Amino acid sequence: MRRGAVVVLLAISAGLAVAALPVGLGIAAAAGAVLASAVVVRSGRPRVMTTAPAVQPSPVEPSEEASDWLETVPCGVLLLDDDLLVVGANEAALDLCGRDRRDVEGVSLIRAIRDHNIAQIARESSGAPEEVDVRDGQMVRATATRLDEPIAGARHVLALEDLTELRDAQRARSDLIANASHELRTPVTAALALAETLELGVSDESLQQDFHQRLTGEISRLSEIIEGLLNLSRVESGSDEFVIEPLRPRELLETAARRIEPLLAAGQSLEIVDESTTLVDGDRERVLEVLANLLDNALRVSPNDGLVRLAAVPADGEVQFEVRDQGPGIILRDRTRVFERFYTGDESRTASSGLGLAIARHIVTRQGGRIWVADEVPGATLCFTLPASRSGADTADSAWESGELSASSSAAAGAISEASRSDR
Question: Tell me, what's the pLDDT at 285?
Answer without folding.
Answer: 93
